[in-house]
Every structure is written in C-alpha cells, then in structure tokens.
C-alpha cells in the first residue's frame, strides 16, 4: 500500500509539471495523517482561509491574497451543487478503477474549492492567476481525462492533442513509425529502431509501465502510465484488433505492446503483435515475436502458420515448410507447393552463381522473388551483384532499392555478423557505382567491423577509399581551374573502378574545358552505357556535340531528356535550337 501511494504521489508531481495544474490523485490519508488533517481543517476554519494542499514535485504559486469565505456560504453552496449534480450519472465506483483509491476524497475537496471560487468573484486561480471554473463532469476517469486534455490544449494550443480511434487520445507528432522532429515520447516495448525506426504511438489509455524519454517537462508519460494500469490486457488486445482491421497498424502495435507489458506470457498477444509488425514492414521483428509466441505455447497453430509465411518471404524454405506442417487446421496445401517452388528457384540461383552465369542468375533471382521470397535480402543482393557484373549499374541500384530495409542491429541478430556483412559488401558496391561515395565507405566500414577477415570486404574497402579520394582531389583541382591535373586525378580513380559513371562524367567536364570534345563525348557515352538515366552525362554529351555541330546527335539526346523532364526549360530551348539548326543544314544540303 505504501508503494502504491508513493507511485501516485510521483505521478501527481509529473502531471502538475506537464499540465500546469495540481495532481489529480489526492494523497491517501494514513492513520497517522488523520489527526494532522483534522487539525489543519480546524485551523483553516478558525482563520477563515482556504488551505491549498501541495502535491510532491509540484511548485504552485501562492495566491496574491487570502480569500475570505464564510462557513455558511461554503455549506449553502455545497448543498446547491449537490442538488445540481443529482441529474449527473453516478461516478464510477472505486472498484471499477482499483488504482483510484481516493477518488471520493479528491472530489469533495475539489467541490469545496470550486464553491469558494464561485462565491468570490475576486478570487485568483493559483495555477494560472485567473478565474477558473472546473466542470461538473470532472469526476471519475472520463471527467479527469477531459479536464487534463482541456488544460493541455489551453497551454499548448488547440492542435496539441487530437482524437484518435477507439476513443483514445494520442500525441500528434509521435505517430507510429514516422520520424518527426520535436519532442517525442517513446514507449520501450519490443525492438525499437534507433534512427528512423519505429516509435510507439502514445495513447492515454495504452501506455503500460515503460521507459520514457523526456526532453522537457511538457511530456505526458505520467498520464499515460496512470491510465494504462487500469486497462485489462484483453481489452487492449480487442482495441488493437479494431485498429488493425482499420489499417491503423502503428496504433495496433502500441496496444499489443501494452497488453504484453501487463501479461507477457500470453501467446496470442505476441502473435497479434507479429501481424502488426509484418504490416509495418518489420519482418525480422515479426519473426522474433512469432518465435516467442510458439515458445510460450508450442502448439499454437496460428503462430506456426504465420511464422511459416514469414520464413517463406525471407527465403528460409526449410524452416517455412516445418512450420507449415505444424500449423494444424491453419495449414493450406498451397503453402507447401509455393514453398517448393521457391526452393527450386533458389537452387538454380546457387548453380548460376557457381557457374558465373550472371544473366541466368538475374533470371532466377527474379523468379525467386515473384514466387514468394519478396523480403529476402540475400536474393536481392544476388540480383544486384549479377547486374553489376554485367555493367548494368542503374538496374542494380533499382533492384537493391526494392529490398526491404532492416536496421543493422536486427539484421545482425537474425543473419549473424558474417551473413549481414556479405549483404553490406554488395550494398557498398552499388552505392559506389551510383556515385554515392560516402554511403559506400560507410557500408563497407560497417561490413569490416562485422567480418574483418573477409578478403572481399578488404578488397572493396580499398577500392572505395581510392575512388572517393580521387573524386575529392579532382573536384578541388577543377574548382581551382587546374583542368589537366583534375583530369589526371579522375583518371587515377578510374584505374580502380573503370566504369564509374561519376568519375567518367567529371573527366568529360575537364576535357570539355580543355577543348577535347571528342574525348569528352567518349567519357559521357561510357557513363550513359552503365547508367542510361544519368541526366548530367547526357546533357554534357549534347553540349559537346553542339559545339561540334553534330545536330542529329544533339536532337537525339535532347529528345530523350525531354521525355524524362518535360518541364525543363533548358532542355526545351536546347531541343528547339538543335532542331532549327538541323532543318537549316538540311535545307542547305538540298
């Protein structure tokens, strides 16, 4: 009992700081407190002053002057208010909300203070320095919530809080998986991504005891914690199911998390959380939750079936078939057929890579993904690697961009350091080929931390460092107008990566400045061959051909650019001039 009272007093202090008002939960009197409270009341009556009770952690301003109130006025007003409240529905009993032990005591004290303020027009609100009328509805859980929300909206603006589904209140600006600026409150449930990952949605009747990150005193962790302890986990699950059906997956996840915090040994909560994580694209986290559900209840058929589907999407065919066979009435013969099809294509992928049949590998990885392994990073990595080997850099970048993005910690936990390092090697090569040098260096350095003894990791790391340094040195020389030296610097980078489109395009710019238009066109053409959508290289080639008065080639490049960027005025103007020059030359020839 002492611990509960201490917890309520702590919550009151936080609420007072956050909402700028007194705590809602009155201090429960102990046997030793009764005498002191009684003597205080007697002293207050004798002095005809109102005594304001100060909650721990709350710094209230004192009234500017004592408010003189007669005992008769308080009693008459109390009788009048009780008559008015006779039409209001009865307040919830203390049994309905077990943590609200002193709701009646709070209500009586609050009623007396409200009567005092109503009888004295000159009285000053000790919280905001002005008159303040507490609504009659501010009794029980619903009334307390309304009063809190009203105060919070007044202090932070009407848009500080918005209504959400299931009659809950959430903070606008910390919704689900969205990364947003400003103060945020994160509930410490499950796996939370650092840096762009998922932040649990804050709801007033959801948040179970959790780790709260506070940047200022205007946070609502205390409010959420107080209300959540009154919720039944089954009720939270039902509310989560409702949000899930309505497509509110982040909100559903927060509710399942709250239910798990109250009852962590219920397999259904884990399985439902897995479904919400899957809908949010967090496949690996969903796998961990399904595993936990099966650990709690080994014969939970729905969790087995759900885990089988997750493993199939990740390309883990053997594990997938195992769980399909243990899914009981949830089993579907089509699932086994689908898993076998994925297994066949994966076998062909392995054989194609062994034979270095890159075109065959591209075909089989495409078939594997379309057959059901649409969230398997290793399959996307194989496809990107094959496209790099065939010098189709833009397609490699497009292929890897379709792969689901998992955070480093979760990926390392699932695939192991060595397995995830292999994926990072391919990602670094794709970044390098696409001209994202800093991202390439970062990815390969992370791979080196995970698997420093890997020869391929060290080789790609040396190449990435050399190309990045060459690009930087060439750029500095180009800015200084030293075009020949800049051209040589870009050439040194191309010695390590001969088909790097960015280095080729940069060297073409140097050669154009030196009047070497033919060589500039050659570099631009080489860059476009690996990245057909490289706009800068095509513009530079069109410019060089314009200076050499090769109008047919100029028109061809500008027409392609016009299709890609029809609103570009520079392209439109260049195309028009090239067409006019071409028509003029043809007229002269005829």
Characterization of this structure:
The structure is a single chain. This protein has 590 residues and is an all-alpha fold. Among the domains are: 228-331, Tetratricopeptide repeat domain (Serine Threonine Protein Phosphatase 5, Tetratricopeptide repeat), CATH 1.25.40; 519-589, Tetratricopeptide repeat domain (Serine Threonine Protein Phosphatase 5, Tetratricopeptide repeat, Alpha Horseshoe), CATH 1.25.40. The protein has helices at residues 2-19, 31-47, 71-84, 103-119, 140-156, 221-228, 233-245, 249-262, 267-279, 283-296, 301-313, 317-325, 333-354, 358-371, 377-389, 393-401, 408-433, 437-450, 455-479, 483-496, 501-513, 517-530, 535-547, 551-564, 569-589, and strands at residues 161-163, 169-171. The protein has a two-stranded antiparallel sheet with strand order 1-2. Helix 7 runs antiparallel to helix 8 (249-262), helix 19 packs antiparallel against helix 20 (483-496) and helix 22 runs antiparallel to helix 23. The termini are far apart.
Name the CATH superfamily assignment of the domain at 228-331: Tetratricopeptide repeat domain
The CATH architecture term of the domain at 228-331 is Alpha Horseshoe
How many angstroms separate the termini?
A: 104 Å
The secondary-structure element order is HHHHHEEHHHHHHHHHHHHHHHHHHHH
């Amino acid at each position: 009992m002492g611990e509960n009272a201490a917890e309520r007093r702590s919550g009151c202090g936080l609420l007072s700081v956050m909402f700028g008002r007194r705590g809602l939960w009155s201090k429960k009197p102990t046997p030793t407190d009764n005498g002191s409270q009684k003597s205080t009341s007697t002293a207050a009556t004798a002095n005809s002053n109102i005594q304001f009770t100060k909650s721990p952690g709350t710094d209230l301003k004192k009234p500017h002057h004592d408010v003189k109130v007669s005992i008769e006025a308080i009693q008459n007003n109390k009788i009048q208010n009780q008559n008015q409240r006779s039409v209001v529905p009865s307040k919830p009993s203390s049994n309905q909300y077990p943590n609200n032990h002193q709701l009646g005591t709070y209500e009586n004290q609050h009623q007396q203070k409200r009567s005092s303020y109503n009888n004295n027009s000159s009285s000053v609100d000790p919280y905001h320095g002005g008159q303040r009328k507490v609504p009659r509805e501010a009794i029980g859980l619903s009334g307390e919530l309304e009063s809190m929300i009203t105060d919070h909206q007044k202090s932070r603006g009407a848009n500080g809080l918005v209504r959400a589904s299931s009659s809950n209140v959430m903070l606008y600006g910390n919704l689900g998986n969205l990364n947003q600026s400003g103060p945020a409150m994160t509930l410490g449930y499950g796996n939370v991504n650092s840096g762009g990952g998922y932040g649990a949605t804050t709801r007033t009747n959801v948040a179970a005891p959790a780790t709260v990150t506070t940047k200022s005193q205007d946070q609502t962790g205390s409010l959420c914690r107080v209300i959540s302890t009154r919720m039944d986990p089954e009720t939270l699950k039902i509310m989560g199911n409702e949000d899930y059906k309505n497509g509110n997956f982040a909100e559903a996840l927060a509710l399942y998390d709250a239910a798990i915090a109250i009852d962590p040994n219920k397999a259904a909560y884990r399985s439902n959380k897995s479904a919400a994580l899957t809908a949010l694209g967090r496949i690996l986290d969903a796998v961990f939750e399904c595993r936990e559900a099966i650990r709690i209840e080994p014969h939970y058929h729905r969790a087995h079936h759900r885990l089988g589907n997750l493993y199939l999407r990740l390309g883990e065919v053997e594990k997938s078939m195992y769980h399909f066979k243990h899914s009981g009435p949830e089993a579907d013969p089509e699932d086994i057929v689908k898993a076998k099809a994925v297994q066949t294509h994966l076998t062909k992928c392995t054989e194609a890579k062994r034979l270095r049949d890159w075109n065959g590998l591209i075909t089989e990885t495409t078939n594997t993904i379309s057959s059901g392994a649409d969230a398997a990073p290793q399959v996307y990595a194989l496809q990107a690697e094959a496209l790099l080997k065939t010098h189709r850099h833009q397609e490699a970048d497009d292929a890897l961009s379709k792969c689901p993005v998992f955070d480093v910690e979760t990926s390392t936990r699932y695939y192991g350091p060595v397995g995830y390092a292999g994926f990072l090697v391919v990602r670094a090569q794709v970044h390098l080929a696409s001209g994202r040098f800093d991202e390439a260096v970062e990815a390969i350095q992370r791979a080196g931390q995970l698997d420093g003894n890997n020869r391929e990791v060290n080789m790609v790391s040396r190449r990435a460092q050399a190309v990045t340094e060459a690009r930087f040195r060439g750029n500095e020389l180009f800015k200084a107008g030293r075009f020949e030296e800049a051209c040589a610097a870009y050439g040194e980078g191309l010695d390590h990566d001969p088909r790097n489109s960015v280095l080729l395009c940069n060297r073409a710019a140097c050669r154009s400045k030196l009047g070497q238009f033919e060589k500039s066109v050659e570099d631009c053409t080489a860059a476009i061959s690996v990245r057909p959508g490289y706009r800068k290289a095509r513009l530079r080639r069109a410019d060089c051909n314009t200076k050499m008065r090769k109008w047919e080639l100029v028109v061809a490049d500008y027409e392609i650019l016009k299709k890609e960027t029809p609103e570009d005025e520079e392209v439109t103007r260049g195309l028009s001039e090239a067409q006019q020059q071409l028509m003029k030359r043809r007229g002269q020839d005829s």
